[in-house]
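Re: the request from the purification team.
They wanted to know what the chain is likely to look like in 3D before they choose a buffer screen. I agreed to run a prediction and write the result into the notebook, where they can find it.
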Amino acid sequence: MNKKALRTILLILIIPLIAEVFFFNFRFWESIFFKEITDYNITNDANNIEVAGIDAPVRNIRIDYPDGLNSAKACHLQITISDEANTDLELPLTEVVPAVEESRYIRIYPDGNVKDIKISFDVNEVPDASGFGVKLNSARPFFIHVTRVVFIAVLMALILLFRPGSEIYKMPLCGSDNKIYDRNKIYVLLGISALVCLWMLIVYAFNYDITQHYRAGHVEAIYTYQAESILNGHVWLDFTPPKYLSEMANPYDFNARLNMARETGESFKLDFAFFDGKYYSYYGIVPTLIFYLPFVALTGLHLNNSVPVLLMGVVFIVFSFLLIYKLVRRSYPGISLGVYFLLVLVFTFGTGAFYCAQTPHVYSVAFISAIMFTVIGLYNWISASDKHFEDSRLQLSKARLLIGAAAMGLATGSRPVFGLFAFLAFPLFYSEIKDRLFFSKKGLANTLCVILPLLLIGSAVLYFNRIRFGSFFDFGNTYNLSEMDLQNRHLGIRRLWLGLFEYLFQPLKISGRFPYVESIYDYRNHPTDYMGYMFFDPVFGGYFALCPVCLCIVFLRECKKALSSVKMYWLCVISLVFAAILLLTDIELTGITLRYQMDFGLPVALTAVLILTVLMRKAEDPSYKYVFKAALVVLIVLTGVTVLHNLFIMLADSKQWALMATNPKLYYSVKYLLFALR
């Protein structure tokens, strides 16, 4: 082992240990010099603890909770102090979590000597505070967390691996034969494994047992309900809607429907489709057929949505690596292993797919299914023309054409708007169409290989619409009993500029309180001047705030010549056109919600990857001194920010399926691993 490698390994091992001992345990070293205070009077009154007669500098407060209280649920408390400069100064709301030892020690910063302290607990969390105790200026224990050491070590390894001077930017991905080196295949497998493990860990952290939802007839179990109804021989769901829905002039008016529910005492099924007196699922049928129907048929049980999200996410990651490899082979044959890895990260996070891992609920099933099948379809279609691209005498792979078309059809059956991406076949095979390899006698087999799977799957989806809603082209989304009436929704130009800003450019809202990122909009907070109805889910920033690296699409025109030379320019143009269509449709028909960024995120990320390959290839020109290094630094930084933003929002308190609500022990464990200096 050479000295450089040994030094790197030592850095990865030693720096996390030093950080653990001195940085993350700073409060321990600091508390050694605190003088413990014992002379004070303490009284417990219902939910309050009052500490009087202190008259001394107080540096920290230790909360002692009753024996046997070992809950992961936080006990929130309000601390009020009187010191030399303030009387009854309320400090920010904080908490003590019995399952997390570090939370017992609260560092405070009074002005001079403290006269008295009052601690008030939330009555709903602590009905009686008499069992709690308080100690002042107590020595904080020395905490060693192996998890934190490993996390910092992994972070250090990633920083060293992807730093601008790393060897991975000097290692060509492919050889002179334009095929990936055997050595690099191992590295790529490691990269796939790392990203798959990250996906699985996130899904596991946010996994949610929907048993109660299933019993309550909640939309979270609607795929299972659809599977059960199909097994029972019909397409409507086995729930009886309240009579007032059929009697109402407009059952899709949310407030009117809510008033009827209150008057009659009969609730309706939120987010179910209501048509002709029955409940239906308007969600794509493909996930039901692939996952839920077999599971229900074999076990008779319901299936947690996190299972298909986990499995389809793994397939999505694998095919993302394959797709990006196919793309860069054409447009940047000399690409390094490091830049290839960065482009894979740009694509996987730029699609927004990691939202599904962080929120593995019913909506995410449809999105990750559609994204996965679209990526599989694109990979196979590009692979079908690989040999023809290298040698015009060679034919297209009919098997790849078939698989690609079938995948695109299944994407449509998962989320109908993704059917738009099937038309990417035209820019992808533009040269082949010109060469009469499609829509001609000699190209009849190729044409059928693309059209037949799409036609068969598409016809099945349309027929399913017909037997549910009486029309081939009615997907049932307008019958959704949501908060928005899509039956009578009118187009509004005024909504567009607001939606464009919020979906694309809204900056992140960063605060000084853990987890440091907050929702700009949520179900209750809609700070806009738009005087009309607009639906809001928790939103943390526009697409380009979360994925700043994808702003490179502004260089499309500058890259036209290079992209045209590898037959990818029109793919980029049409992808962005489709992204714009889906963006405008989402603004008008859905409102502002983070998950819908995935509709247009995939074509934008695909275009961004192609443009970045061209820009990096141009920057590699020897005539541009230092340009490649500068471009590499920019790519590394923007990719890192994109990954960080998309991952960090999963800790937010206001997101759908917030970790604090679904897994409070994990949330507070993470908080006090990172927020060690409280």
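For the purification team: The chain has 26 helices and 13 strands.
Please add any questions underneath this entry.
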